[in-house]
């Protein structure tokens, strides 16, 4: 059973519930000590008086507020206990609010409130059942460790939990951290929602929520104690480079999430599909058809793309002819040679072959 951190009472209206405060969480982190590398001697932090240059014990140490370098105002624990605060010995409930109205950034560590004896059993149960039925949480004020705090009381099972809360002025304004204005399309939002659907869980149980770092450190310590090599860790998969297409990244993420959960990516009735936006087709300039320049360009040593070997029949309104083998021509034939003429629109153009010698 964890030890009591604080004793007092919960008060709301004229109802008082005597309680003990005990820790609701445990820290399982592995902690290390500092030691001297040469002989493995412990290195400790010692409390030394700066004026006398000697180590002092806890019974010689007190609190104080420094007004100036040479002026200290001593404050004792008894001074703090006698402060005229109604919250000095009580957790005073000041309001009941919906949990959704409390920003989670203000919620801190949690503590169980344990009823103090039989006299506290009934009012404790009354408050717990009232909180559970109202679906609300209580906001309270209390004073611990020399300062007044704000707290949140909620129900967990059969117990009441107190969460420390931060005061409004302790929360920094995030406006200076927000990104510059950008446009996000409706399709991209739908894609993100589809990814959220595939990653939705009913609870936080499973290997994904296990502290693998602490387990790995424990295995490392055990391996060194047994003078053996620790287990090797498989190399992580290489992450692809930066994805500039947000829709493609969402689509890949949805597919990967389904695959990890053993779902068929093309299962019937599955509405978590993300589709890429269709690209806009570019309009061709007026009077031109797509590919006209490429069709007109004739590769060296061959016929133009799209040309039919019709032996002189025109294609696309322009005369074309087969490549004839080079022949010797007389001056007469040369003088009478004519090039193929372009016919008016609507008539077929023909070509004359050179007369053989």
TrEMBL record:
The keyword Transmembrane does not apply. Residues 223-242, 252-357 are annotated as: Disordered. CDD domains: KU_like. Pfam families: Ku. It comes from the Bacteria. Keywords: DNA damage, DNA recombination, DNA repair, DNA-binding. Residues 223-240, 256-279 have a biased composition (Basic and acidic residues). Residues 53-182 form the Ku domain. InterPro entries: DNA_bd_Ku70/Ku80 (IPR006164), Prok_Ku (IPR009187), SPOC-like_C_dom_sf (IPR016194). SMART domains: Ku78. Residues 286-302 have a biased composition (Low complexity). Belongs to the prokaryotic Ku family. With LigD forms a non-homologous end joining (NHEJ) DNA repair enzyme, which repairs dsDNA breaks with reduced fidelity. Binds linear dsDNA with 5'- and 3'- overhangs but not closed circular dsDNA nor ssDNA. Recruits and stimulates the ligase activity of LigD. NCBIfam families: Ku_bact. PANTHER family: NON-HOMOLOGOUS END JOINING PROTEIN KU (PTHR41251:SF1). Homodimer. Interacts with LigD. This is Non-homologous end joining protein Ku. It comes from Streptomyces rochei.
């Amino acid at each position: 059973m964890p030890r009591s951190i604080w004793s007092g009472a919960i008060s709301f209206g004229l109802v008082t519930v005597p309680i003990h405060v005990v820790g609701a969480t445990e820290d399982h982190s592995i902690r290390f000590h500092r030691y001297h590398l040469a002989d493995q001697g412990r290195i400790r932090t010692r409390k030394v008086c700066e004026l006398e240059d000697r180590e002092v014990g806890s019974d010689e140490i007190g609190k104080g507020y420094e007004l100036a370098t040479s002026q200290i105002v001593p404050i004792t624990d008894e001074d703090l206990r006698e402060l005229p605060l109604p919250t000095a010995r009580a957790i005073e409930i000041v309001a009941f609010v919906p949990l959704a109205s409390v920003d989670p950034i203000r919620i801190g560590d949690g503590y169980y409130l344990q009823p103090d004896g039989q006299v506290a059993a009934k009012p404790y149960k009354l408050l717990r059942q009232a909180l559970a039925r109202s679906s609300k949480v209580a906001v309270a004020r209390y004073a611990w460790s020399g300062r007044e705090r704000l707290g949140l009381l909620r129900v967990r099972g059969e117990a009441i939990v107190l969460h420390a809360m931060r005061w409004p002025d302790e929360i920094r304004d995030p406006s200076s951290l927000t990104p510059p204005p950008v446009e996000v399309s409706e399709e991209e939002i739908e894609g993100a929602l589809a990814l959220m659907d595939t990653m939705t869980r009913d609870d936080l149980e499973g290997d994904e929520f296990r502290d693998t770092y602490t387990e790995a450190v424990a295995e490392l310590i055990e391996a060194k104690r047994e003078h053996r090599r620790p287990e090797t860790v498989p190399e992580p998969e290489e992450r692809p480079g930066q994805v500039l297409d947000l829709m493609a990244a969402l689509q890949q993420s949805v597919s990967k999430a389904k695959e990890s959960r053993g779902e068929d990516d093309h299962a019937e009735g599955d509405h978590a599909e993300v589709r890429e936006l269709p690209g806009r087709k570019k309009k061709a300039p007026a009077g031109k058809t797509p590919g006209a320049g490429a069709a007109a360009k004739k590769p060296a040593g061959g016929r133009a793309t799209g040309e039919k070997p019709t032996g002189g029949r025109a294609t696309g309104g322009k005369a074309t002819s087969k490549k004839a083998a080079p022949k010797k021509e007389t001056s007469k034939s040369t003088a009478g040679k004519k090039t193929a003429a372009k016919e008016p629109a609507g008539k077929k153009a023909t070509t004359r072959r050179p007369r053989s010698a």
